[in-house]
Amino acid sequence: MSELQIYNTESRRKETFKPIQPGKVGLYVCGVTVYDYCHVGHARVMVVFDTFVRHLRAQGYDVKYVRNITDIDDKIINRALERGESINALTARFIDAMHEDERALNVLPPDEEPRATEYMQDILQMIETLLGKGCAYRADNGDVYFSVRDFPDYGRLSHKKLEDLEAGARIDVNAAKKDPLDFVLWKAAKPEEPEEAKWSAPFGLGRPGWHIECSAMSTRCLGPHFDIHGGGMDLQFPHHENEIAQSECATGEHFVNYWMHVGFVRINDEKMSKSLGNFFTIRDVIKAYHPEVLRTFLLSAHYRSPVNYSEDNLEKAKAELQRLYGALENIMPGEAVADTDYERRFDAALNDDLNTPQAFAVLFELARDVNKSQEPALAGLLVKLGQRLGILYDTPEAFFRSDAGADLSEEEIERLIEARNQARKDRDFARADQIRDELKAAGIELLDGPEGTRWRRV
RNA sequence: GGCCGGGUGGUAGAGUGGCUAUACAGAGGAUUGCAAAUCCUUGGACGUCGGUUCGAUUCCGGCCCCGGCCUCCA
After folding, report:
1. Between chain A's N and C termini, which has fewer beta carbons within 10 Å?
2. Residues A182, A184, A225, A263: what is their CA dihedral angle, to the nearest 10 degrees?
3. Structural domains in chain A?
């Protein structure tokens, strides 16, 4: 069996994965800030790490997968005020929506899903530790800052030098900071903020800064030193860099062994993001496409490459998935054959830094084999491996008929098919073709086979 | 400006120092009442200029172009 290789952002190369404890993996992924619906960029991170975890488990690892929820920050507060809604109601609503989106995408729930507001004790403790060790300080305005200069290794993840950072720093007029690079651990409460956003702490009423929650929660859930930490590319700096600084200062231990970062989803060669306003939400996309099509689209490129969101590319993903489901259409999948070259190559592809495009290539070869051989055991293998990528959970019929938008009901379609088949029996092919064309115009494609006529929405 | 990542056939997208990626689209064939699906065969590529090499799309360097981070962002 091939060894698992992971591209580590910190070393900028693929490394053979060596777990801290044999057979076990501790994985922490930065989740979303819940003040809006998840978009396709979030979907990519969810789907990539879900696939990664499925693969690790298939390889026999005992995985503890932790993905946090940021449920307190400026944007949440502002959005709640804007809407005249309580923070709690707002975040609860979007957390539910996120879970709904994940279920649609066949994203399995993480083992733990810590929320910042539920780990306030750990956050406070870590800040106190940092203050005690002298790598954090209380500023005149009541904020608590981390002193970047006190962490000599700062920049080791994102490969930045302090001088360069200073040179490029945008003008951040914050007189309270001793150094412009320092970042906030605790934000002092302001009078206009809702009571819900204020926690009492030894260093004053306020709320945590963004970075500290991940250090506190990952340490609590996985310990001070764990295997893998992941997230979107944009979290590399400053978020993850800051996590390293805080955590290592606080615990004195090496924080994380492998850093994985997922590439962006783009639109017209531009990053999809909330600030640019060019995002599509998951729920919007799956109104028009089967959720597995979106998942296939997201996995059809390597996770570190950018992927371009477009209707064209979604259509391509749909065609790919049709190819796979097509192989399963006339066959009852049986128990998957074991010990095949297909599975070995599939595993090897995923072991190679989660090379999902390569894994898909194996699936297509397998699908061709299924089409030719009509072997239930091969079909079973196709389903098994497909599900490892989080697809092929549906029945082919349901998949091919899933597209919304066709005007005809299934009964009407069946009736027309019957009429056509009668015409064919009567050798009235003109009439038969007329019905075919009619259905085609309504988005229904007919497939005549030995066992009768099947149909699909196209 | 500093630091990263990338430029592969019509499209999407892997990969490799010399040997078929894969999918859709294209061409030819088998099959079909006609189609579709399926199977077989097939054309088509590695931004640019140099270097290393017997040989580079693959290694090295310059250049051009694209994206990202340096501010909240998955």
Report:
1. N
2. -80
3. 20-265 (3.40.50.620), 311-406 (1.20.120.640), 407-458 (no CATH)
